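A quick aside before the break. I want you to see a complete sequence-to-structure record at least once, exactly as it would be stored in a machine-readable document. Don't worry about memorizing anything.
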Amino acid sequence: MIERCSWSGTDPLYIKYHDEEWGVPVYDDKTLFEFIVLESAQAGLSWITILRKRENYRKAFCDFDVQKVTKLGPKDVERLLVDAGIIRNRLKIESTITNARAFIAIQDEFGSFARYIWTFVEGEPILGNRKSLKDIPPLTPLAEVLAKDLKKRGFKFLGPTVMYAHMQATGMVNDHVQNCFRHQQVLTKTTRDVLFG
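That is the input. The structure line, written in tokens, reads:
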């Protein structure tokens, strides 16, 4: 029998996300922007709620094309506020557009958002070595540093808890518990050569 992190539960969507995405290093800017959008939408809600709305977010926010999202205006915000497929929170919708602009500013400064964000872990995933779910912290000092830097750069709805979840999701930290079959598998991924080689 396959052993997984217990948080993945029995929902097929959650299991697929755990088995195929969570903890795998991401260094593609489009995917990183997608996770920024979804993580900020998730603030205060469960991740499974957002996963179930993921395709709706893809449609609502231009297939996560960051350049297109920056062009959304007040009429688009009003349209999205009545879109039952996403979280209808004005501040979260507006912050997605704000975050897209801040995301592009980082791309302009660093060459890519991936190069920027992976510098916080020196280009290599941090190995959590967690024995059980209770050993996984809700945030870390590094997540606080990252959240503070993003806030300084104009990002919204990305506090330290949300950013630690982002770091876990995009493989900046491997928090698969030791007995999970994915714990060793995601260790084979590396970003240093791709980003800094």
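Two observations worth writing down. The CA atoms of residues 130 and 136 lie 6 Å apart. The chain has one domain: 6-196. We'll return to this after the break.
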